[in-house]
């Protein structure tokens, strides 16, 4: 790998400084004199370079130098820019070698945690023992980072450093170094999300925190230490879960720091401006709601959701949860995006005790890092991705069967076609309204979708309340420009609090990260585990197990076809699969196969689920003459390490009548 001349000269200078610091030249002179005294024979006039290097190596000088010049790397995830590594020495100070000297960076170190009292009684994990872990995820200005997992404890041993690029070309003059005043105007916070992963791989959202980093601009030498108190989520958002010790350092060091008073004044002005915008929007929203109720008193019972609580218990306008999101090269089509959202896990917000559903709309980073969320989280992400693909998409809020609240996505085609997208399953439904005033014998379209009522639709720019006589989805007319059917909110009012950069309280949207899962390796691992589980299960029943590898291999095309159909709604390749199976199963033999789909990679949990199906149990517990078993696993990876896991169990045996 060749370096540009300026980089090479910078590297030489750093090595020279390091050698001078270690006084390597003095030590070489001492060894040279000693070697000449001890080893130079009277008839020899000079020592060769090779002799000198041997002497230096023998005395450990070369090893010492190499150790000093060795850099340890820190894991980072940067989906939109090349991976960077940050070096540490024993005092955890930043080594400047890998940082671009023409850029302005913020170096954030997490130096341990304390007071995670929920884990006060947690025993010290033994070496090699699987235990629950904490992982800290960060997002700052389109850069994503993830800490190394550390065992859950009262004082978790976080020791990670993250190099955050503050000044980017998007600020305008990309060649000029950002000064303190310029950086003071960069209001993006550092979003920190703490995830707990248990021994079964299940994730829990522990805390979500927005770190205001600009206090470092008023600190001496551009270095400051902070103590960050993390609060719980949902119903526990007022309860402390633990404390993190954080150190912030600007690099290159600031030539001129601001006074702390200037920094505090700027932050106070931003808070004041945000509070005023939010107050004005609240006044407008109350007025809009009063007008909406005056249209028809029954509107009071409709699901018109203007505000929603995030994981920290903060009320935000629903339009702020959606924004056009481009997936780069990670997802190619809107239908593939729908499949990706579908394979992210579904989990309702946890609630303590009874009393119905606990509301919690997660910020996008918290949803992605946890890899699961409620129907609203899925709908917001799918709507954002479809907007990124240039479609006119909206989140719909309404109810399903039995009046259960639900959220799904709707797209409006240029030809007037209305398409519903179910974010939890990936299914799509064309909406054709029924005419309640039509003649009794007239044929009406029968709805295939599970939705019953709809109260409102919204995206990042629009919010519309349903003011038609009935809120039943099947009779709804989705002409969103007709104000007699849909009451709109002012787009200017929405933009004042939901447009990017409108308020400092808006959580920034992170980019998607590529999967870190190796599909082939993971498929093999799960398949081997399932073979072992099947063999043990049959052994308990007093049955022998004979696996047929060729039959297992023949199941692969079917699994690929099932995933292709889920993504595209097109079935392909079934004829070849059936033909191959007919050839593999001799006359007089019977073949049975059972495919099943999961969105997790826990083989034991999948096997337990399979056994609950009578069809699958019939295959796994098959008795007969010349029984041959087969199992095939195929893992399909998606961004954010989400995956679709297809498993097919099969058997063939000789039919004895």
TrEMBL record:
Domain called CEP76 C2: residue spans: 98-255
Localization (cell): Cytoplasm, Cytoskeleton, Microtubule organizing center, Centrosome, Centriole
UniProt main location, coarse: cytoplasm
Pfam families: CEP76-C2, CEP76_C, CEP76_N, CEPT76_peptidase
GO cellular component, one term: protein-containing complex
Entry keywords, A to Z: Cytoplasm, Cytoskeleton
Domain CEP76 N-terminal: 10-69
Domain Centrosomal protein of 76 kDa C-terminal as annotated: residue spans: 516-654
Record GO biological process: regulation of centriole replication
Subunit comment: Interacts with CCP110 and CEP97.
Similarity section: Belongs to the CEP76 family.
Function per UniProt: Centrosomal protein involved in regulation of centriole duplication. Required to limit centriole duplication to once per cell cycle by preventing centriole reduplication.
PANTHER family in the cross-refs: CENTROSOMAL PROTEIN OF 76 KDA (PTHR46436)
Protein name: Centrosomal protein of 76 kDa
């Amino acid at each position: 790998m060749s370096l540009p001349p300026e980089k090479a000269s910078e590297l030489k200078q750093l090595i020279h400084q390091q050698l001078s610091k270690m006084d390597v030249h003095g030590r070489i002179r001492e060894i040279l004199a000693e070697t000449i005294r001890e080893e130079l024979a009277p008839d020899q006039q000079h020592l060769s370079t090779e002799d000198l290097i041997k002497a230096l190596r023998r005395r450990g000088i070369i090893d010492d130098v190499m150790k000093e010049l060795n850099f340890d790397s820190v894991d980072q995830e940067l989906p939109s820019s090349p991976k960077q590594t940050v070096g540490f020495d024993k005092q955890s100070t930043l080594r400047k070698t890998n940082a671009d000297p023409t850029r302005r960076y913020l170096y954030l170190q997490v130096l341990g945690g304390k007071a995670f009292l929920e884990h006060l009684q947690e025993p010290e994990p033994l070496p090699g023992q699987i235990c629950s872990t904490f992982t800290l995820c960060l997002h700052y200005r389109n850069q994503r980072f993830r800490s190394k997992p550390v065992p859950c404890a009262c004082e978790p041993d976080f020791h990670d450093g993250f190099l955050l690029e503050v000044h980017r070309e998007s600020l305008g003059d990309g060649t000029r170094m950002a000064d303190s005043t310029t950086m003071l105007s960069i209001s993006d916070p550092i979003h920190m999300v703490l995830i707990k992963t248990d021994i079964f791989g299940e994730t829990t959202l522990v805390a979500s925190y927005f770190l205001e980093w600009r206090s470092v601009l008023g600190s001496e030498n551009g270095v400051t230490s902070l103590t960050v108190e993390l609060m719980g989520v949902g119903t526990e958002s007022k309860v402390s879960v633990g404390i993190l010790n954080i150190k912030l350092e600007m690099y290159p060091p600031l030539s001129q720091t601001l006074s702390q008073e200037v920094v505090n004044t700027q932050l106070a002005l931003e808070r004041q401006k945000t509070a005023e915008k939010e107050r004005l929007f609240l006044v407008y929203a109350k007025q809009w709601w009063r007008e909406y109720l005056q249209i028809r008193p029954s509107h009071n019972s409709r699901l018109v959701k203007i505000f929603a609580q995030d994981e920290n218990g903060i009320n935000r306008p629903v339009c702020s949860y959606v924004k056009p999101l481009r997936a780069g090269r990670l997802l190619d089509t809107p239908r593939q995006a729908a499949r990706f959202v579908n394979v992210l896990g579904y989990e309702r917000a946890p609630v303590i005790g009874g009393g119905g559903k606990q509301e919690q709309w997660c910020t996008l980073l918290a949803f992605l890092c946890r890899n699961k969320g409620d129907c609203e989280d899925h709908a917001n992400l799918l709507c954002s991705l479809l907007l990124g693909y240039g479609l006119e998409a909206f989140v719909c809020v309404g109810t399903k069967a039995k009046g259960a609240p639900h959220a799904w996505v709707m797209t409006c085609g240029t030809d007037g076609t209305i398409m519903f997208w179910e974010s939890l399953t990936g299914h799509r439904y064309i909406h054709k309204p029924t005419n309640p005033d039509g003649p009794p014998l007239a044929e009406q379209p029968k709805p295939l979708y599970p939705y019953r009522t709809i109260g409102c639709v919204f995206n990042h720019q629009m919010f519309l309340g349903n003011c038609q006589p009935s809120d039943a989805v099947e009779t709804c007319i989705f002409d969103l420009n007709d104000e007699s059917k849909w009451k709109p909110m002012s787009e200017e009012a929405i933009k004042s609090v939901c447009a990017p950069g409108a308020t400092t309280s808006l959580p920034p949207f992170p980019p998607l990260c590529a999967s870190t899962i190796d599909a082939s390796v993971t498929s093999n691992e799960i398949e081997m585990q399932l073979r072992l589980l099947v063999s043990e299960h049959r052994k308990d029943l007093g049955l022998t197990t004979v696996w047929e590898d060729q039959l297992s291999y023949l199941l692969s095309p079917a699994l690929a076809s099932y995933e292709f159909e889920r993504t595209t709604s097109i079935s392909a390749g079934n004829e070849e699969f059936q033909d191959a199976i007919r050839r593999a199963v001799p006359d007089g033999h019977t073949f049975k196969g059972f495919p099943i789909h999961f969105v997790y990679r826990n083989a034991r949990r999948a096997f337990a689920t399979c056994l609950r199906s009578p069809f699958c149990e019939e295959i796994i517990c098959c008795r007969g003459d010349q029984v041959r078993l087969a199992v095939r696993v195929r893992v399909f990876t998606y961004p954010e390490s989400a995956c679709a896991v297809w498993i097919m169990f099969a058997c063939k045996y000789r039919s004895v009548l």
